[in-house]
Design brief:
27% strand; five-stranded mixed beta sheet
Length: 310
């Protein structure tokens, strides 16, 4: 017979490994940058989208340079939400099942820990990638600061426009068109502000992903980070499983050379296993919770997206 005290200590014994593994998995995505994962102590955050700056003039010998300021952009607020699940060991499992009850508890805990780790990470990543899966959907919760889908026809607060959505399937002609867009890109005041593509993101294993490898990373061995493949060639090719099968034709080019991704996930607390407690029915429970917020915190001109339909 295994005591409740042993079961409590056994749960405490897997807490550190679970917490560390969750953090490591998520930090693997933090390094890629196409979604801006960051740590924050704030429950709600207010962002103002970046607009252009004008006012540099030719100066006379004694002229005082004018003060310059960014134009007023759109205000965006993202607020934290709470997520979680629980690991529960019924009394029968730790007291009665199996001829070696101590071994039974340890094995049951390891299986539950591993599955909970996958489930917690999958939930966080699935939620984060909704911003890409709904990038062409005007009814999405995750719209750009101008209330237009992430990839669409946008208007800056100061009046300029850009359109970062196309429908071309990925091939060399579509990539050339993307560079035309990049070279012609302007700031809100219409001044030249060319982009430089650094990453392409698509569904792992899809035709779009395979074409990206062929075009930009042929014969280059990928680096595996968690469940994504990263090829470092002309572009960093990122294949993620969290773009859905329904959106497997989608592909996204990013310029992350000067600015962080406007798609942001603020992590208030990583998925964490709380201290175990014994319930009235003698089961041992450990709640696993996390706190995070997400949204589109800046205009999305540095992203060029296609739904791949033509």
């Amino acid at each position: 017979m295994t005591s409740a005290d042993y079961a409590l200590q056994a749960v405490k014994g897997i807490k550190k490994s679970y917490d560390n593994a969750c953090r490591t998995r998520i930090e693997g995505y933090m390094e890629q940058g196409y979604i801006q994962f960051y740590n924050t102590s704030e429950v709600s955050e207010i962002y103002t989208s970046t607009e252009g700056m004008n006012g540099v003039i030719e100066l006379g010998e004694l002229t005082t340079p004018p003060s310059l300021a960014l134009g007023d952009g759109f205000s965006v607020t993202i607020s934290e939400k709470r997520f979680g699940g629980a690991l529960v060991i019924p009394e029968k499992v730790y007291r009665r099942e199996g001829p070696d009850s101590t071994y039974k508890v340890d094995q049951a805990l390891k299986r539950q820990r591993n599955q909970l780790l996958k489930t917690s990470t999958r939930k966080l990543m699935t939620d984060a990638h909704l911003m890409l899966n709904e990038a062409f959907d005007s009814t999405s919760v995750y719209l750009a600061p101008d209330s237009v889908e992430i990839c669409g026809s946008h208007t800056w607060a100061s009046g300029g426009t850009f359109d970062n959505a196309v429908t071309d399937a990925l091939d060399i002609d579509a990539y050339n068109d993307a560079w035309e867009y990049a070279g012609a890109y302007t700031d809100p005041a219409g001044k030249e502000d060319p982009l430089n593509w650094t990453q392409i993101v698509n569904k792992k294993g899809s035709a779009s992903h395979r074409e990206a490898i062929r075009l930009f990373a042929k014969e280059i061995k990928p680096t595996a980070v968690n469940d994504i493949n990263i090829y470092e060639g002309e572009l960093t090719v990122v294949g993620t499983p969290y773009i859905t099968t329904a959106n497997k034709l989608n592909w996204f080019l990013y310029d992350l050379s000067t600015d962080a991704s406007p798609l942001a996930v603020g992590i208030g607390e990583y998925p964490t296993m709380r201290s175990p407690i014994k319930e009235n029915n003698e089961a041992i429970r450990s709640n696993c919770t996390d706190f995070r917020k997400q949204g589109v915190i800046n205009m999305t001109g540095q992203i060029y997206g296609s739904d791949g339909t033509t």
